[in-house]
Amino acid sequence: MQKVHLESVRRKTGGRIHLTPRVPRGGPVTTLCGQTLGEGSYTAVDSAPDCANCIRRSHDQARISGAFFAQEEGSELLRLSLEQAKTRKPNLRVLPHPGTEKDKPVVWPAPKPPPESTPEQLGELATRGFKPSGEGVWRSPLGVIVRLRKHGKEWRFAELVFEGEVVATRVEDGIRLKAGDVEVVPTDDGFEVRLRKKT
């Protein structure tokens, strides 16, 4: 594997030995630790670096790559990358893919609507046990359909539909209806529609 070659540089006045992608013939040089040494204030050396930051950053490929491109030495990285690619062996492994077995489609669960908060009382209807079947239409567990009609802002009992026995009984305030599991009871100001209590 080809390794990026970094060069060592030191101030002419002495001090730490730093790493840089290339020591230029003229102009300033930027070290891996981020110092910029002005033109004529540095010299290339063959000694091993002793700047702890440069040594640590010499193991960081992103920092090295950034330093090369900052010094417009990106072509060197490209050359090394191409050489490395030539020496790599291509992966010629063939993965088994049975031709007879078709890909099975992914079965996603049906989306569920968010749970609606149903009020316990909707006008004259006690909604407990009923399921909404449209605007103003409710269905009991045994299939009794109760239709409500909006009267101003209030929902009022309008109609009851059931394909079974319906019992109407006269009571003091009006008529009580029993159909399937639903009963309609007169109140002082109208009716109350509710599920019958199990006896």
Quick overview:
The chain is of the alpha+beta class.
| Basic shape | rod-shaped
Largest sheet: 4 strands, antiparallel
Give me the Rg, rounded. 43 Å
Domains, number? 2
Runs in which pLDDT lies below 50 for 5 or more consecutive residues are none
Quaternary organization? single chain
The ordered string of helix (H) and strand (E) elements is EEEEEHHHEEEEEEEEEE
Strand order of the largest sheet: 8-9-10-11
The end-to-end distance, rounded to whole angstroms, is 86 Å
Strand content: 25-35%
Find the structural class using helix and strand composition.
alpha+beta
Please report the number of helical segments. 3
Helix content bin = 10-25%
Average the pLDDT over all residues and give the rounded result: 81
**What is the tally of beta strands?**
15
Explain this structure to me?
With 199 residues, this protein is an alpha+beta fold. The chain folds into 2 domains: 7-87, no CATH class; 121-195, no CATH class. Helix content is 15%, strand content 33%. It has helices at 52-57, 61-70, 74-87, and strands at 7-11, 17-20, 29-30, 36-37, 42-45, 121-122, 125-126, 131-132, 137-139, 145-151, 154-161, 166-171, 174-179, 182-187, 190-195. The protein has a 4-stranded antiparallel β-sheet, with no helix packed on it. 16% of the residues are buried.
